[in-house]
Write a structure and sequence with these properties.
It is built from 7 helices and 22 strands. The protein has 475 residues and is mainly beta. The termini are far apart.
């Protein structure tokens, strides 16, 4: 169980995968294809006749359960530059439990690791009223949603805190999921109404999805208690007496690495489609006047169907099921954890289904943007997760962000400030020519126990993209 908590901690605090929302890029009028993931209608507002995204990558972690307080920063952790005094003799990282501190405020706990690579993509604006784009993207996500403090604290104690022994517990609902997939998107946007310095844009994106790896465990209710291990006085058991849950997993990546051959394999277990749709209202008298934009969009509608095993549990019988820490030793991945859980709950049982559905992180996106002729602007973005906690789907973490910025043809500066997961984050981004570098959580990269900054996540992104040909006049 100590290994299981290590994986949960990874989801909730200490490791990075990839992207979130790239607020410094997606709110810029020169963001090109990167704006379309917030609202596809913005393709028709591109200031460039042709835009090419060569590549953009992101790492993002957020949670509201633990604060990071190791003596080295998360930036050192993900870059592999942790000082030698914090490593074991074999060079592996020595990560102490004291390096994270619980946030116990009685609220359900959420954690997300997102990683994203936005591959070669382009946008063409053949007329002032229309545009189309083709985008490629690879996404991976790991999440814990709606977890109770009680069960997370028990895992964090690694089942050795005797103060927790023999206390029945029923407050433990949570949803955990992973999803790794690629997409090919086709976007079209155009002006559907125009008059007297005002216009209304409509845009839509259709996506073809190919999935490589997915797991989910939706726990709707579990009765358990921690009891002494009769075979080891220094250990304990997790005794499960009742469980109402759904467990599913794939094994395609069990002995494979993510390489070009794997990415384009016809044997990939997940396939699906997705859609985005959005409207944008723009009020601007001429190119020398301020521009006001109001947008509404629903993104990531749809999902993937995976070939894999799914099990439903609502009766585990009269005899309790016991989990030991050693059950999770020497495992190689999340799918191994899922398999151990399934085998302990019902050894030899055939799956209820040999395929399962995983929904995309559907969200409602509302934006308001003001751009002055001088290049200074202000963007307000609200993203609302519309998936239920019990949905077999990944989730878009809800957020409210305000981004002051300066935008010119060859220079962009932005300072996104967001309310995310019951906390405030502040970032900064810069674009010089075609190069982007930014973060939506600057202090999360640098915080450690020495400087007294105790972050709850991190965020960093970089990319190379540029536009050719101008639709309007020079800035």
């Amino acid at each position: 169980m100590k290994y299981l908590f290590a994986c949960a901690s990874m989801l909730l605090a200490t490791t990075a995968g990839f992207s979130q929302n790239l607020l410094g890029i997606s709110t810029s009028r020169f963001g090109g294809t990167n704006r379309l993931y917030i609202n596809p209608a913005l393709a028709a507002d591109s200031p460039s006749k042709f835009f090419l995204n060569v590549g953009t990558g992101v790492a993002h972690v957020d949670n509201n359960y633990v604060r990071y307080q190791a003596p080295f920063s998360l930036l050192r952790l993900i870059s592999g530059t942790v000082p030698a005094q914090y490593k074991n003799s074999d060079g592996s990282l020595r990560f102490e439990s004291s390096y994270t501190k619980e946030i116990l405020d009685g609220k359900p706990k959420n954690g997300t690791i997102l990683g994203e690579i936005r591959g070669p993509s382009f946008l063409i604006k053949p007329t002032d009223r229309s545009a189309f784009a083709i985008t490629t993207r690879f996404r991976a996500v790991g999440q814990v949603v709606g977890a109770s403090e009680d069960i997370l604290s028990a895992f964090r104690a690694s089942l050795v805190d005797k103060a927790l022994y023999s206390i029945p517990n029923t407050n433990n609902k949570f949803s955990a999921n992973t999803n790794t997939f690629a997409e090919l998107g086709f976007t079209y946007a155009g002006t559907i109404w125009e008059g007297d310095g005002q216009k209304l844009l409509l845009g839509a994106t259709a996506k073809l999805l190919l999935g490589y790896n997915a797991q989910h465990l939706v726990n709707r209710g579990m009765d358990y208690q921690i009891v002494p291990d009769p075979n080891n006085s220094n250990s304990a058991l997790l005794e499960v007496n009742r469980l109402d849950a759904t467990l599913a997993y794939t094994s395609f990546l069990q002995n494979r690495s993510l390489n070009p051959r794997t990415l384009f394999s016809t044997a990939a277990p997940g396939k699906g489609v997705g859609f985005d749709i959005g409207f944008t209202y723009i009020s601007q008298y001429d190119t020398d006047s301020p521009a006001l934009q109001l947008g509404i969009a629903v993104t990531d509608i749809g999902g993937l169907t995976y070939t894999g095993e799914e099990y439903s549990y609502n009766d585990i019988g009269q005899n309790p099921v016991y989990f030991r820490s050693s059950d999770f030793n020497n495992l190689s991945g999340v799918e191994d954890i899922a398999r151990v859980i399934q085998e302990k709950l019902n050894t030899g049982r055939s799956p209820d289904k040999t395929s399962f559905r995983t929904g995309l992180p559907t969200s409602l996106n509302l934006t308001m943007d003001y751009q002055a002729p001088t290049g200074f602007g202000l963007n307000v973005t609200y993203l609302q997760d519309v998936r239920s906690i019990n949905a077999l789907a990944t989730h878009q973490p809800s957020l409210l962000a305000v981004t002051p910025r300066y935008d010119a043809r060859w220079l962009s500066l932005a300072v996104p400030i967001a309310y995310l997961n019951h906390g405030i984050t502040a970032g900064a981004s810069v674009r010089v020519g075609p190069g982007w570098l930014g973060t939506d959580n600057f202090l999360g990269l640098l915080g450690n126990s020495i400087n007294g900054i105790h972050p709850r996540g991190l965020d960093i992104y970089a990319g190379f993209a540029f536009g050719i040909g101008r639709v309007d006049e020079d800035d």
